């Protein structure tokens, strides 16, 4: 039995999502909060996992947005929505003799959000882009990888996710304001700028210390930070940084209690010194001691025992590991969804937040392609 | 903050600290919410002592890591272990719209500020909590950071080369965009619902569940697709698709070629037209299978030029290419970033002029403001008591004597 959805906090809000791959996640955010989202996009050749995850629960309009027919369909829907999200290439509307400003003049309450790789005015505005080049030009790619190899791209089109998230937040800010002013407005999310906000402390390191951060492998360059192998994979450990000084002490106690070879050495005063712990020598020595201790232990057992002792350690999960995580199972995070009456059950991640009164919930629609509605 | 900002009139009592929480309230502050950061002198936000540090400034007032996350906010220092401190917090909440925290489960309740307690003071409050693994569940009290979330969620394992241990993003990525922006989206949705109905509510953002959503498609089991695995810079859609060395020290260019027509154009630009008839590269699947050979051929060409010139050469032919920017080239060399005005330098009484990022959301009618650099610890304690709580100097002195401002 499929439980009826409770109305989400955005029930009644109408969204036209013509945002290609860049903004599909923004459309999903609205759909799972109860908004009525229509997705205008070409028919997916083979609806894969990404399409299901991002577009389930949106009403579909099949059209190529860069054809006359697609643009006509897009324009015909503008009157029926509160919000439009698009990622048309700059100048597309003009090629059909249309102007966004003019369309918005006719619809003063419309909130129109545009996701574009580089904004619409700068010198790169006409550049081609993909997730890889977005991450490169936005400054995030340089931070990932091993120093002896080329920088490596994060999994999962994160530049699109980042832009989508800012788009969702921007649109809701504009909508909140519209409740007072009764006026819409135009919002731009340049992906390059959005990615540049995801660089942790790189901008500040350059600004304040003239240090340029680059890729350093997994974890920090210091002992007890990063990946360590165990019997069935690896664990990730952070002991000694930020507020983890107690974690380091607890870790050394644990290793000594367990009689791990070499662990007595870690209790010596030298290891209290962060400068020593940051040396390659110390990093290597710790790794030797810890890996020998962990080699016959399962990552889940290490996780539980480390956490019992207040140490920030966890398993490095693959997808199946996360699907089987006891905390996520207990909280029923992954949800079984059937698409259509005869659909096989599928597991999907649930929404990223839980609202007590107007819950977010996975929007599911039979993916009927409805160009006449 | 001025009246034309879109969130003018929204007051947030902000107990968040460290990574994700403060970025949630920062974006709301940029659009006009009044964010009052509650801090503690005895247990300051750990970011206040976390590098990078300015050359000048007293302890707790030098960190760029902290400053970036806390611009546009006011700071009130309260000792929540003292009744007088808790009393002031309660009085501030009585007139607030949102209360936010990113503590471990149970901390707020111990101060008498759990959701039910706060709803008694302010029934329509929007109450945001951001526990790492959730407020309930067998692991709710586990400890960790953005980096451990990357590992538990499966994201870390998906990033890197197939022949090496996983490497992640080189950052505590969930802290910087996914978790704060999911939380901000939820707070705004709840505020919109409140406008319509007068109802407040509690929002729980499990930072793990939030993080999994940014790799959601990897979890969809629809029976048709291979499980995803770590594949370096290879792509299902683009080939070649990689990051190539250029002239100079550690300079790189990213290139993504889509389809056969672009592949032929690419070979011409590279000066290797014969590659188009090379059987090893005659389809996307073959180019992926033989990526190592192909990438080494491309690298011979890219190494002879600057990353910028490779980018412009390929872009001129309609092929996606981009220099691999770092913080220095972003700030000093990228003309598009300059045109977008991504950064603003603000004065800071201890750190001197410091560079802040603007919100990447450009609004035509109610644009964001970036006006005030990060507050000093407790900088606005007395102002807030006077302006928001209408306390007299005598009352403030009495609260001070009672140890409220710790």
Explain what this protein looks like in three dimensions.
The complex is a heterodimer of chains A (373) and B (406). Chain A is an alpha/beta fold and 373 residues long. Chain A has a 6-stranded parallel sheet with strand order 3-2-1-4-5-6, sandwiched between helices. In chain A, 54% of the residues are buried. In chain A, β7 and β8 form a beta hairpin. Helix content of chain A is 37%, strand content 16%. With 406 residues, chain B is an alpha/beta fold. Chain B contains 18 helices and 12 strands. Chain B has helices at residues 20-30, 64-70, 83-93, 107-110, 115-121, 146-153, 155-158, 173-176, 178-197, 207-212, 259-270, 284-289, 291-302, 307-316, 327-332, 335-340, 381-387, 393-401, and strands at 11-14, 34-39, 74-77, 98-101, 126-129, 201-204, 241-246, 251-256, 320-323, 343-346, 354-357, 362-363. In chain B, the strands form 3 sheets. A 6-stranded parallel sheet of chain B has the order 3-2-1-4-5-6, sandwiched between helices. A 3-stranded antiparallel sheet of chain B has the order 7-8-9. In chain B, strands 10-11 form a two-stranded antiparallel ribbon. In chain B, α1 crosses α9. Chain B is elongated and about 85 Å long. Classes of the chains: A alpha/beta (373), B alpha/beta (406). Chains A and B meet through α2, α6, α7, β6 and α8 of A and α2, α6, α7, α8 and α9 of B. β6 of chain A pairs antiparallel with β12 of chain B.
């Amino acid at each position: 039995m499929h439980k009826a959805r409770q109305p989400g906090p955005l029930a009644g809000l109408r969204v036209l999502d013509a945002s290609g791959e860049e903004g599909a996640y923004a459309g999903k955010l609205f759909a799972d909060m109860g908004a009525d989202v229509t997705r205008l996009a070409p028919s997916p050749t083979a609806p894969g996992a990404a399409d299901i995850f991002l577009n389930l629960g949106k009403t579909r309009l099949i059209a190529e947005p860069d054809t006359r027919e697609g643009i006509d369909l897009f324009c015909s829907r503008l009157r029926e929505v509160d919000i439009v999200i698009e990622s048309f290439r700059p100048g597309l509307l003009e090629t059909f003799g249309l102007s966004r400003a003019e369309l918005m003049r006719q619809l003063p309450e419309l909130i129109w959000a545009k996701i574009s790789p580089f904004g619409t005015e700068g010198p790169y505005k006409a550049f081609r882009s993909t997730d890889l080049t977005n991450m490169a030009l936005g400054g995030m790619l340089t931070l990932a990888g091993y120093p002896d190899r080329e920088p490596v791209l994060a999994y999962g089109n994160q530049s699109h996710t980042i832009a989508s998230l800012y788009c969702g937040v921007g649109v809701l800010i504009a909508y909140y304001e519209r409740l007072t002013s009764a006026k819409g407005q135009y919002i731009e999310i340049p992906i390059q700028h959005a990615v540049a906000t995801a660089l942790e402390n790189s901008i500040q390191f350059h600004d304040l210390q003239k240090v340029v951060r680059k890729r350093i492998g997994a974890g920090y360059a210091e002992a007890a930070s990063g990946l360590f192998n165990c019997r069935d994979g690896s664990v990730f450990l952070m002991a000694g940084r930020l507020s983890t000084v107690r974690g380091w002490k607890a870790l050394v106690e644990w290793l000594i209690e367990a009689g791990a070879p070499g662990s007595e050495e870690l209790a010596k005063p030298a290891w209290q010194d962060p400068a020593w712990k940051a040396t390659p020598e110390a990093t290597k020595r710790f790794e030797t001691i810890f890996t020998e201790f962990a080699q016959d232990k399962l990552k889940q057992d290490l996780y539980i025992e480390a956490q019992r002792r207040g140490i920030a350690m966890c398993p490095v999960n693959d997808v199946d590991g996360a699907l089987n995580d006891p905390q996520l199972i207990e909280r029923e995070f992954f949800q079984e969804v059937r698409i259509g009456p005869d659909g096989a059950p599928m597991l999907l991640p649930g929404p990223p937040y839980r609202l007590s009164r107007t819950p977010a919930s996975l929007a599911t629609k039979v993916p009927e392609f409805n160009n006449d509605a | 903050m001025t009246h034309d900002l879109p969130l003018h009139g929204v007051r947030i009592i902000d107990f968040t600290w460290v990574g994700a929480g403060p970025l949630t309230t920062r974006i709301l502050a940029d659009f006009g919410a009044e964010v009052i950061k509650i801090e503690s002198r005895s247990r300051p936000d750990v970011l206040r002592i976390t590098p990078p540090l300015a050359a000048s400034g007293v302890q707790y007032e030098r960190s760029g890591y902290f400053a970036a996350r806390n611009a546009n906010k006011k700071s009130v220092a309260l000792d929540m272990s003292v009744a007088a401190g808790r009393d002031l917090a309660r009085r501030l909440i009585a007139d607030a719209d949102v209360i936010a925290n990113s503590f471990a489960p149970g901390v707020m309740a111990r101060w008498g500020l759990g959701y039910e307690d706060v709803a008694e003071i302010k029934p329509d409050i929007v109450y945001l909590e951001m526990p790492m693994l959730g407020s309930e569940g067998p692991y709710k009290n586990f400890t960790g950071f953005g980096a451990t979330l990357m590992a538990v969620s499966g994201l870390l394992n998906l990033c890197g080369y197939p022949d090496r241990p996983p490497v992640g993003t080189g950052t505590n990525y969930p802290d910087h965009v996914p978790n704060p922006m999911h939380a901000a989206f939820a707070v705004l949705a709840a505020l919109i619902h409140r406008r319509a109905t007068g109802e407040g509510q509690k929002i729980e953002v499990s930072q793990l569940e939030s993080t999994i959503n940014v790799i959601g498609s990897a979890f969809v089991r629809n029976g048709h697709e291979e499980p995803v695995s770590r594949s370096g810079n290879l792509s299902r859609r683009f080939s070649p698709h990689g990051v190539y060395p250029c002239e100079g020290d550690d300079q790189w260019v990213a290139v993504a070629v889509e389809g056969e027509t672009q592949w032929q154009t690419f070979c011409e630009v590279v000066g290797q037209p014969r590659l188009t008839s090379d059987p090893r590269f005659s389809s996307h699947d073959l180019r992926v299978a033989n990526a190592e050979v192909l990438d080494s051929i491309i690298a011979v060409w890219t190494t002879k030029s600057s990353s910028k010139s490779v980018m412009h050469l390929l872009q001129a032919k309609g092929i996606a290419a981009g220099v691999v920017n770092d913080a220095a080239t972003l700030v000093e060399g990228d003309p598009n970033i300059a045109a977008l005005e991504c950064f603003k330098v603000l004065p800071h009484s201890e750190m001197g002029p410091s560079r802040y990022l603007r919100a990447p959301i450009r609004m035509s009618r109610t644009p964001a403001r970036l006006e005030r650099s990060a507050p000093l610890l407790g900088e606005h304690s007395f102002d807030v008591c006077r302006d928001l709580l209408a306390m007299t100097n005598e009352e403030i002195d009495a609260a001070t004597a009672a140890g409220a401002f710790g």
